[in-house]
Write a structure and sequence with these properties.
With about 200 residues, this protein is of the alpha/beta class. The protein folds into two domains: about 50 residues, Orthogonal Bundle (Helicase, Ruva Protein, domain 3); about 140 residues, Dna Topoisomerase Vi A Subunit, Chain: A, domain 2. Helix content is about 45%, strand content about 10%. It contains eight helices and seven strands. The strands form two sheets. It has a five-stranded mixed beta sheet. It has a two-stranded antiparallel ribbon with strand order 1-2. The radius of gyration is 20 Å and the shape is elongated. The N and C termini lie far apart (about 45 Å).
């Protein structure tokens, strides 16, 4: 909790505290956002509150790919025009959005919801790896693309998943090195991502 000024009224102080919990939001930004909400018309503030509640009440995980959705299965999994024989494995739902913006990929996805990171207490059992293994065994895709982030955690996750998939005989690949090492897929531009996917290499 942030240290509260004596002149900050309790509801505003609480809003600042809650906003400061968001990733990338420091105390000063939280204060600016809180006072923006305070000055905004009531309808705008209520609309923001409703949007937050709606996200928590209506957004679920797709039972097939574990991407976020408001229908199950999600729109991508239901789309029979997509290439059903390729599954692209990503760390987070934001990575799906980034890859879709490239227009280069027309297969399916599987979202792990994180990467293996012993330092942070994240092991394989906390990710959707088991579900991926089961999905591959059931659907028999011809290729699995391990598009985890090109950093230590992402590389470790990709190698672990590749080892787990080895008995299935599925072709496993990794996007080419057009992605910057140590970067996150969600921040890469569309051209770089598209080229990385096109030039993916076997693992």
């Amino acid at each position: 909790m942030l240290q509260r000024s004596r002149v900050t009224v309790e509801p505003v102080a609480r809003l600042i505290d809650e906003l400061a919990r968001l990733p990338g939001i420091g105390p000063k930004t939280a204060s600016r956002l809180a006072y923006y909400v305070l000055r905004a018309p009531r309808e705008q503030a209520l609309s923001l509150a409703d949007a937050i509640l709606e996200v928590k009440e209506k957004v679920i995980l797709c039972s097939r790919c574990f991407n976020i959705t408001d229908t199950d299965p999600c729109a991508i999994c239901r789309d029979h025009d997509r290439e059903q024989g390729i599954i692209c494995v990503v760390e987070e739902p934001l990575d799906v959005l980034a890859l879709e913006r490239t227009g280069e990929y027309r297969g399916l996805y599987h979202v792990l919801h994180g990467a293996i990171s012993p330092v942070d207490g994240v092991g394989p059992d906390k990710l959707r790896i088991r579900e991926l293994i089961e999905r591959v065994a059931e659907q028999h895709p011809r290729e699995v693309i391990l598009a985890t982030n090109p950093n230590i955690e992402g590389d470790a996750t990709a190698m672990y998943v590749a080892r787990q998939l080895a008995p299935s005989g599925v072709s496993v690949s990794r996007p080419a090195s057009g992605l910057p090492v140590g970067g996150d897929i969600e921040y890469a531009d569309e051209v770089t991502l598209g080229r990385a996917l096109s030039g993916r290499r076997a693992l």
